[in-house]
Amino acid sequence: MTTTDAAMTIGRLAKAGGVGVETVRYYQRRGLMETPAREGSGVDGGVRRYDRGDLRRLRFIRAAQAAGFTLEQIGELLELDSGTDRTRARRLAEDRIAALDARIAELETARAALQRLARDCRTGGVGPCPIIAAFETAGRPN
Hints:
Helix content is about 65%, strand content about 5%. The protein is mainly alpha-helical. It has a two-stranded antiparallel ribbon with strand order 1-2. The longest helix is centred in the C-terminal third of the chain and has 38 residues, at about 85-125.
């Protein structure tokens, strides 16, 4: 029986999901994951058990984060998961794509500026390094 076939402790769930235990607890506090009731009794008060559905949700959260969604957006996507509001889900994805496109444009601009500075540094022989000079003046008010 594998980890995903049986009820898991929070430690096994976290490991299977590629996160730490505190990350699982954080997602629970944020309402992205449910906190199961404790099973059993005894000195430790019982153990919480997680199932494949919990692991699937944890992996969904991590994948959505990797795609750049905020935890608030992920919460909305999780709510949409149980419904059929494809229009809203598509709109969230399109908004994320637009944000990524804007960030890519910023990064391309930064890359071009650094390439220009590196080229100027390589071809210039006298005076201060253009890279260092550019960064020294970048934070100054006009």
